[in-house]
Amino acid sequence: MKQTLIKNAYVISMNAKREVYNNGSILIEGDSIKAIGKIDEELLSENIEIIDAKGKIVLPGLINTHVHLSQQLGRGIADDVDLLTWLRERVWPYESSFDYEASLVSSTACCIEMIKSGVTTFLESGGQYVEAMVEAVKNTGMRAALSKSVMDEGIGLPNNWIKTADEEIETQKELYDKYNNTADGRVKIWFGLRTIFNNSDELILKTKKIADELKTGIHMHIAEIAAENDYVKSNRGNSTVEHLHKLGALGPNLLAVHTVWLTDREIDLFRLYDVKVSHNPAAAMKVVLGFARIPEMLEKGISVSIGTDGAPSNNRMDMMREMYLTSLIHKGRTLNPKIVPAEQILEMATINGAKCAMLENEIGSLEVGKKADLIILNPNTLHSIPLHDPIANIVYTMSSENVESTMCNGQWLMKNREILVLNENELIEKVKEKSEEIKNRANIVLPNRFPVIDII
Predict the structure, then answer these.
(1) DSSP class of residue 270?
(2) How far apart, in whole angstroms, are the C-alpha atoms of residue 276 and residue 112?
(3) 59, 350 in Cβ contact below 8 A?
(4) Per-residue pLDDT at 252
(5) What is the pTM of this model?
(6) Which residues pair with 255 in a beta bridge?
(7) pLDDT below 70 — which residues of the chain?
(8) Interacting residues of 342 by C-beta distance below 8 A, sequence separation 6+
(9) Of 90, 184, 173, 120, which is closest to residue 192 (Cα–Cα)?
(10) Which of 167, 220, 377, 395 has the fewest C-beta atoms lying within 10 Å of its C-beta?
(11) In this predicted structure, what is the pLDDT of residue 86?
């Protein structure tokens, strides 16, 4: 069986004791970690690949718990607009103009951008061509939980998205039966609920029932904007979280995304039912959702992770940047420099992300028997040295530029900044072509921000 030895590294294990091995090594055999720390030479095979990582940092692959693969080609189509304009006039017309090929190009491009920023696992909140997402994950070597974008009611839905609750459940069940645990176990199929604006009580209840039966996850945008709670109170009698509680929809397999507008009681409900949370700081600021009460949730012991959201709402699928933003905004909101310190940020991006993915027994830390999902950081850049406090530097100074190599399931996806799973230049040309085609098909016309003079 193939072996890889990474030696002489600063290894941040993220295990239960949060042990760090200075000048440590990791032995990978097949898709898993065989040994860590000081390696017995008798364990090494003759044809082993040896990586000398002296002066570099090894840590678990980052886990992006909220991303939209199908929105990658829409980067820049919805900047500087409010959320409902963003959704109904830009993103929905754009996404509803997709075909399989566009979805595959978009999904593949998003995967590659994440690989380059150190992500090995992601949770996808929903698109219309899940089969294309599966193909992209399979081809790029990543690990993912994929969902269909599920809606059975609401204002402004494109005609080709109007489905009944039973139709949406049946489609997702077929996807689960066909694709769950495929691609060497790297693909999981979850059930999606887009937002409570677009999900009936019937759909929510049926989704909860079948997800529990199949022991899989539910991915849902929750308490995203203040107007959401106002809408739900007017139409269903309570705020989003309180209504989901009344329905019996809260549980440990629910990933609640954004969760900006929560009361103290609702935070306690999340703790009581072990609801997981995906915090998306860049999207929350850019689309002006507000500031989620992340320190309060962490203090209650809620599993809070980090996500980028999609390209039209964040513009960068960069988890290194997202860690930095997470560290800043809560210090600013609370006026407390000790809030959400660097080590807690790293937990959110690794082991907490694994808990949110329901994969904490497989990934999220570097331990014997876990999957070999890891990244190598090269701190030898002017913006990230000197390295007085390596963990702080990862959060406060490093960027995706420092991600030198990315491994998932024991396979190198990127090595020495070179993408190994496909031809990146060819992908770039496909992205340019398809993005323009979809924008034209969706009739999205963006005004010039400054006078443009065409020189003939």
Answers:
(1) H
(2) 26
(3) yes
(4) 98
(5) 0.97
(6) 219, 276
(7) none
(8) 327, 389, 391, 392, 394, 395, 396
(9) 173
(10) 167
(11) 80
